[in-house]
């Protein structure tokens, strides 16, 4: 066995799946959001009351949120992948404030854009704000994938348990751009555990995973290609 092959084998042998419970302290909005962010109503409360999560009522204020170079950089990366794959339509799931998608509309105005979210009031407000896109309520756990050329799941990985993600991703035939919240490592895992100890009443906000644990969500049905979406590590998933 050559040195390079031995190194690859060693890395394979020590690969482990790492996952920790994620919590978030919503401060003054904690009671409104509730104990578990997995519920659509919790996200509606966060979009209405929690600092850093609020979806504005006015178009001008909403556009100001999207006027961010970090978002524009991610949008350009997504637009480049869409162009590489020949995609003419893109569906983004769990869009929340929709500011990344607004940046995508600016980076690729020729791309037909569909935005979805499971939270009822959030979706209704975004539909009024985001006139350049089609906006609809959609729950990944129950509703089928939209009929588009490319799917975007941006910072959604914490939302569902492993078995839920495996069922969700298995339904997708067209490519997916999957951008995790973060790639968990030992340092961030310790920080997450410490956060739960310091803030015992913080809202449960799903799970953080390392790359091996993320791959376990789709490995049965999809192959992945690591990419960078602006400053964020991500994966392009294609059906096997």
Description:
- The structure is a single chain.
- The protein has helices spanning 3-14, 30-33, 40-49, 59-66, 69-85, 99-107, 120-129, 162-170, 186-198, 211-218; strands spanning 19-24, 89-93, 112-117, 134-137, 150-154, 176-179, 203-209, 222-229, 232-239.
- The radius of gyration is 18 Å and the shape is globular.
- The protein contains ten helices and nine strands.
- Mean pLDDT is 92; it is low at 1-13.
- The chain has a single domain, classed as Rossmann fold, CATH 3.40.50.
- The strands form two sheets. It has a seven-stranded mixed β-sheet with strand order 4-3-2-5-6-9-8, with helices on one face.
The succession of helices and strands, N to C, reads HEHHHHEHEHEEHEHEHEE
Let me know the largest β-sheet. 7 strands, mixed
What radius of gyration results from the CA coordinates? 18 Å
| Widest sheet, order of strands | 4-3-2-5-6-9-8
Beta strand count = 9
Per the CATH scheme, the topology name is Rossmann fold
Broad CATH class: Alpha Beta
Distance between the termini: 29 Å
Tell me the name of the CATH homologous superfamily: Vaccinia Virus protein VP39
Low-pLDDT windows of residues: 1-13
């Amino acid at each position: 066995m050559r040195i390079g092959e031995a190194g690859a084998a060693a890395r394979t042998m020590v690969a482990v799946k790492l996952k920790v419970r994620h919590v978030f302290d919503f401060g003054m909005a904690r009671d409104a959001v509730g104990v578990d962010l997995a519920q659509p109503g919790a996200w509606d409360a966060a979009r209405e009351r929690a600092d850093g999560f609020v979806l504005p009522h006015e178009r001008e204020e909403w556009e100001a949120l999207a006027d961010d170079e970090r978002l524009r950089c991610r949008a350009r990366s997504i637009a480049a992948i869409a162009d590489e794959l020949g995609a003419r339509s893109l569906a983004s799931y769990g869009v929340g404030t929709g500011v990344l998608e607004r940046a995508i509309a600016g980076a690729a105005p020729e791309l037909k854009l569909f935005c979805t979210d499971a939270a009822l009031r959030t979706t209704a407000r975004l539909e009024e704000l985001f006139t350049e896109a089609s906006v609809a309520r959609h729950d990944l756990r129950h509703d089928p994938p939209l009929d588009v050329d490319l799917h975007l799941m941006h910072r959604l990985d914490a939302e569902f348990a492993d078995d839920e993600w495996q069922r969700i991703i298995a339904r997708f035939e067209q490519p997916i751009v999957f951008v995790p919240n973060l790639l968990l490592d030992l340092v961030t895992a310790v920080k997450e555990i410490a956060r739960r100890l310091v803030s015992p009443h913080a809202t449960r906000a799903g799970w953080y995973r390392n790359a091996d644990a993320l791959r376990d969500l789709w490995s049965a049905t999809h192959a992945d290609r690591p990419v960078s979406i602006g400053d964020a590590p991500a994966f392009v998933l294609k059906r096997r």
